[in-house]
Amino acid sequence: YHESYVSRVTLEPPFRVRAVMHSSPIIKTLTNDWQLEEVVGEPGKTLVKFDVSFEFRNSLHTAAAKLFFE
After folding, report:
1. In what side-by-side order are the strands of the sheet with 27-38?
2. Is the N or the C terminus of the chain less surrounded, counting Cβ atoms within 10 Å?
3. Which residues, including other chains, have CB under 8 Å from residue 23's CB and lie 6 or more apart?
4. Is pLDDT above 80 for 3?
5. Is 46 helix (H, G, I), strand (E, B) or coil?
């Protein structure tokens, strides 16, 4: 099995990256956000916060996947 999709990835200065999926036969929506933050008091370290939201075209697939992500 092989699934692929196309995403538009944008930088939202200064420290946010967003990827939005544009085409997939199985996934209805998919958005990934990365927020980068300097760790106060720890030079050279970065905290990465990652958020993903998605919806499959088939509601049963969405319900099953959300068991692992929510």
Report:
1. 6-12, 16-23, 27-38, 46-56
2. N
3. 5, 6
4. no
5. strand
Quick one: tokens of 23? 């085409």
Is-cis flag, bond preceding 43, omega within 30? Answer: no
pLDDT of residue 55: 86
- The one-letter amino acid code at 45 reads K
Q: Which residues lie below 8 Å from residue 45, measured CB to CB, with a gap of 6+?
A: 38, 39
Q: What is the per-residue pLDDT for 18? A: 96
Contact 37, 15 (CB under 8 A): yes
Q: Whole-model pTM above 0.85?
A: no
Structure confidence by residue, pLDDT tens digits, 18-57: 999 988 888 899 999 999 999 999 999 999 999 998 888 8
Reported as type and span, the H/E element at residue 26 is none
CB atoms within 10 A of CB 56: 18
